[in-house]
Amino acid sequence: MMSIKPNKGFTIILAMSLIAAFLIVASAIVGVSCGEIVQASMYSDTSSAYYLAVAGAERMYAYLKNIQALNQTITWPLRPSGFNNVTVQMGGSNVGTYTATAELTGQAGEFAIVSSGTAKGHTSIVTVKYGYSSTYTNGIPLGSMGPMNFSGSRWFIFTSRVYADGPIESASTISPSASCPNSSPYVQYNGDVVPNMSGLGSPSYWYKYDQPTNSWSQKQVFDTDGNGQFVNDTTGKGYVNADDCAGDPVKLATFNADDTNDDDRVDNKDAFITYYTTELNTANNLGINPGGPNYYSGDKNLGPYTIPTGVSMIFVDGDVNIIFNAQKWWPTASDIAIISTQDITVVQPVNGSDDRMTLVAYDDVITGGINLGDIADVDGNVNIYANDDFNAVLGGSTNGSIMTGGNINVQTGLPSFLFNRDLNQGTDSWFDPTRRPVGLPPSYPEVSKPFSIKAENFSALGYKPRWQRR
Amino acid sequence: MDQTRFYWILTGLVLLIMSAAILPGLHSGITLQPAKVNTTITPIIPAQSDITNESAGISIEELKKQAGDFYDNKGQDSTQNESSTLAEVYSRYPDATVGNNMVASWARTSPEEKAKVEEHLDKEVILAQDALKTNPEDKKAKHMLFITSTLKKLCKNNFDYKLLESIPEEEGGLLSKSKKPSRP
């Protein structure tokens, strides 16, 4: 073995130690740098793959919403050809691909969108679970016996548009007849738009409740009290008056008995009043009979603290003005119906996702507000029946059903997103008849859908989508 | 141990340490092996448990107790325990029962947009008033005046509506202590 002198050995060891220390530091720097570069590159590719997968999931969701709007049925699992290995480009270069499918999860009323994104060999899979119903029944989103007119506005890049869920059906005309979201009058329909619909009928109030048998039957028109005695409209006026009695005292007595509101004619208004204050009141013990605790005479202004919690319906023989809601809608669920023999005007209607407000007016229902919704201002539902017209002015966002015996007129204000008007379909299902709003008239038009995604909201009725990534 | 052997052993140890330090660095630079990703994204919608009253550390029963039962105490001034403004309601109850926070939404709106809306409402109020001067029975103008003037008031108060004002004073409120439903 080669011998080393002590003074040289110390120098060698010192030099080698310094080299070792240098190499350790250099190695650490190289190692950390390489690791960071690799991690950054990998993170970028994985993120791209994730966002590709999200894009696939979002597109599949839109596809399913369209199936819902078109009232189509679904065969599970759903693997549309246009969703397989879809290439996504950005600035002319390929970012990657996604493949999206939808299938049942095995949990009742639940399906999942599974979307896989791939970028530079890295794959990310996103699964989103949604609730759905195959038993969705609700009132018609928009229906009228008279013409429907929708109108938004625009000034340069600013617009206030009208959005309406379908089916939208009218026994008369609908204007515009198709969506025009980018041009005057700035209207966007989602679903069928059916003008001049022959099968659409105005709800009738000529119904009688039989308490002993707990059953309903149709009354003869003009037989308001349902006793089988009535006077005929001899001249085709659409109502009966004293002239139709021709001086016959028996007929006059019958006429007077059927003239519920003493306005010297027997007509649909008598049927309206009698239906609520007698028939429905008896069937549901609502206290809306004349003199009852929930019967009011004269014009009324209503707000969130005016109708006690627990009261489900009031009858007002006069005009009604409402600010926000007629009943406190928090913290427990509110389900209130306001029936008016004249007009109902509601400013900025609002409620929570577990609430429902039903407005029925023998004349008009008018609403106006400002669209402040991240979610709908009416996060729950508002269902409206106007025997004459429904008019919506300025902005606002509601879920629910609107039907009129007359016209529907929707007009936004100046071009501002605050005056957007959104008329969304109802978020609750009336498939269970006990969920149907009691205040709506018999034969109120309804729609059923074989597939409906449950509302994405916070309520017990809605469904919370769950996003997972792997 | 002689001195020469000691130095050789020491040299060997130094080389060993150098190798141990260098090799992992080279390894990471060569293999480019991505770490396994297994992440669960936080749900966009809060979990159901997050939106119940319990998550706020208070039960519904407790909330009811705090609020007082306004309606079961007819004839007494129990309104003092109720939420008197909309902002107060939003702060006390979860979104699910109250709905969209209009006060917060309006607060987020730019001053320019607010001014534009308020100006438009002013114009609509004047139009409705003029129409009513011409025809006091103009139903459409009456409704428009009620809607626009109410919205003006809401905007002015930043949508922080005073809820108890919704009980018309002249009636004492429909639920009121003195309510006597009138007959037709």
Average of pLDDT of chain A: 89
| Spatial extent as radius of gyration of chain A | 33 Å
Percent strand of chain A: 25-35%
* Interface with most residues: A-B, 103 and 85 residues
Counting helices, strands and paired strands, the structural category of chain A is alpha/beta
The helix/strand series of chain B, from N terminus to C terminus, equals HHHHHHH
Helical segment count of chain B: 7
Low-pLDDT residue intervals, each spanning 5 or more residues of chain A: none
Beta-strand level of the residues of chain B, as a percent range? Answer: under 5%
Anisotropy-based shape of chain A: elongated
Termini Cα gap of chain A: 61 Å
Structure explained in plain terms:
The complex is a heterodimer of chains A (about 475) and B (about 180). Chain A has 3 helices and 33 strands. Chain A has about 475 residues and is α/β, with parallel strands linked by helices. In chain A, strand 2 and strand 3 form a beta hairpin. Chain A is elongated, with a radius of gyration of 33 Å. The mean pLDDT of chain A is about 90. Helix content of chain B is about 55%, strand content about 0%. Chain B is built from 7 helices and no strands. The longest helix of chain B has 29 residues, at about 5-30. At the A-B interface, helix 1, strand 17, strand 18, strand 24 and strand 26 of A face helix 1, helix 2, helix 4, helix 5 and helix 6 of B.
Task: Name a few traits of the molecule.
heterodimer, A: 470 residues, alpha/beta, 33 strands, 32% strand, B: 184 residues, mainly alpha, 7 helices, 0% strand, disordered C terminus
Question: Helix and strand layout, with pairings?
Answer:
The complex is a heterodimer of chains A (470) and B (184).
Chain A: H1 6-69, E1 86-90, E2 93-104, E3 110-119, E4 122-133, E5 136-139, E6 142-144, E7 148-151, E8 153-155, E9 158-160, E10 162-165, E11 168-170, E12 174-175, E13 187-190, E14 193-194, E15 207-210, E16 215-218, H2 249-258, H3 268-284, E17 295-297, E18 300-302, E19 313-317, E20 320-323, E21 335-340, E22 344-347, E23 356-361, E24 365-369, E25 381-386, E26 390-394, E27 396-399, E28 402-404, E29 408-411, E30 421-424, E31 446-449, E32 452-453, E33 466-469
Parallel strand pairs in A: 6-11, 6-28, 7-12, 7-29, 10-13, 10-30, 11-14, 17-19, 18-20, 19-21, 20-22, 21-23, 22-24, 23-25, 24-26, 25-28, 26-29, 27-30
Antiparallel strand pairs in A: 1-2, 2-3, 3-4, 4-32, 4-33, 5-31, 8-9, 15-16
Chain B: H1 3-31, H2 60-67, H3 86-92, H4 95-98, H5 102-108, H6 111-134, H7 139-156
Helix pairs in contact in B: 6-7
